[in-house]
Structure formats: structure tokens, C-alpha cells
Design brief:
The chain contains 5 helices and 9 strands, in the order αββββαββαααβββ. Helix 4 packs across helix 5. It has 2 domains: 160 residues, Electron Transport, Fmn-binding Protein, Chain A (Pnp Oxidase, Chain A, Roll), CATH 2.30.110.10; 40 residues, no CATH class. Strands 1, 2, 3, 4, 5, 6, 7, 8 and 9 form a 9-stranded antiparallel beta sheet that branches. By secondary structure, it is an alpha+beta fold.
């Protein structure tokens, strides 16, 4: 079978205007909870798309670590490729795809850094190994071998033998404040249900149905 022959018929459920919360962040939280209740693997995984100052794009999967009235929060090394691009061009997009529920959510907006206090608070919740890895990995830089990375990690284990691993100055959080959020529900014959929230000047939202 060729890739062109791969097919999936969507049949899970419908999405109507009456189903939607007036606030897209509350609507997202409902869908995220449904993904959690369904036992999906890493329901907080999301594709993060960024671009450099010239508009050249890049994308990768990261983990959502918070959602509130400000938007969607995640953490990374500020000196990584995505960190540098967000500093150069503080606009980004997110895609959540929950295949088992035949749903996706697409988000676009502006990005700002979280406060050092918030980054510190989250960093301390990470397992010790993950905190050491944040120091060991010069994210996105070329390294000579896996052995180099593992040796750096072992050195850090000796340097920080207990649980008091400090927050690296190059590591922390971002929050994406959405200007647009689209909810997509798969439907038979590719006649999908799509609803798009657009932020208004008064910080309210308009909701429009989009053609699939």
C-alpha cells in the first residue's frame, strides 16, 4: 500500500455551535480533560511552530505545562533554536492533535517569557535527573558524541549530589497569549466541523464556523 492510499474515516462525534463555551480557554480545558479521561498518551503534547527574524519557520513537539487566562505555558532552554527564534520573533503557533478523539486544536498568538519566579517554581517540580539534564544539554548545539553529553551529566551529578539543583539562567518558561484558536472535529466524508475564535479589541471573542 502506498502512502497515497492510506485512509481514515472519521466518525467519532459532531461539534455544533451550541457545544462551545464562550471562552476558548475554557473550551480547550474541557477538550484537554476529555483527552485525559480517555487515557491518551501525553495529551499535553503539542507542536510548537516558530520563525526567525527572516520568517524562516521551524517546528517541534513540546509539552504544555499550564493553561490559564493568560494562555498556554511551556518551558525550554532560552538559548535553544526555539528560544532564540521566540526572542527574535515573539509570535508562534501551537497544534494539539488527539487522534483517538478525532480532534485537533490550532492556536496562534504572541509569546512572552514567564517570570523568573514562575520558572523557578516549575523547575523545582521536575525530577532531579531532568533538572540536571537542563544543565547538561546545551540545547540545539552540535556535540561530538553521546559520550560527551553523558560525561557532562555525570559531572553534574557529582557537583549536585543532593536534590538542590539550581535553575539555570538560560532556562525558563514562555506563555503564548492566543489571538486565534480553532477547534476541529473530524466528520465523515471529510466534512469536518471547524470553529474559530478570534480575539476582539475589547478582549472578548467572536466565534465563526469555517468550511472544512
Amino acid at each position: 500500500m502506498s502512502i497515497a492510499d492510506l485512509r481514515k474515516e472519521y466518525k467519532w462525534t459532531a461539534l455544533s455551535r451550541e457545544d462551545l463555551d464562550a471562552d476558548p480557554l475554557r473550551q480547550f480545558q474541557k477538550w484537554l480533560q476529555a483527552a485525559l479521561d480517555a487515557g491518551l498518551v501525553e495529551p499535553n503534547a503539542m507542536t510548537l511552530a516558530t520563525a526567525d527574524r527572516t520568517g524562516k519557520p521551524s517546528a517541534r513537539t513540546v509539552l504544555l505545562r499550564g493553561v490559564d487566562e493568560r494562555g498556554f505555558s511551556f518551558f525550554t532552554n532560552y538559548e535553544s533554536r526555539k528560544g532564540r527564534e521566540l526572542s527574535e520573533n515573539p509570535c508562534a503557533a501551537l497544534v494539539f492533535y488527539w487522534a483517538e478523539l478525532e480532534r485537533q486544536v490550532c492556536v496562534a498568538g504572541s509569546v512572552t517569557r514567564l517570570s523568573p519566579a514562575e520558572s523557578e517554581a516549575y523547575f523545582r517540580t521536575r525530577p532531579r535527573g531532568s533538572r540536571l539534564a537542563a544543565w547538561a544539554s546545551r540545547q540545539s548545539e552540535v556535540i561530538s558524541s553521546r559520550a560527551e553529553l553523558e560525561e557532562r551529566f555525570r559531572e553534574l551529578e557529582k557537583l549536585h549530589p543532593d536534590d538542590s539543583v539550581p535553575l539555570p539562567s538560560c532556562w525558563g518558561g514562555f506563555v503564548l497569549s492566543p489571538a486565534r484558536i480553532e477547534f476541529w472535529q473530524g466528520r465523515p466524508n471529510r466534512l469536518h466541523d471547524r470553529f474559530c475564535y478570534i480575539r476582539k479589541a475589547d478582549h472578548g471573542w467572536t466565534i465563526e464556523r469555517l468550511s472544512p
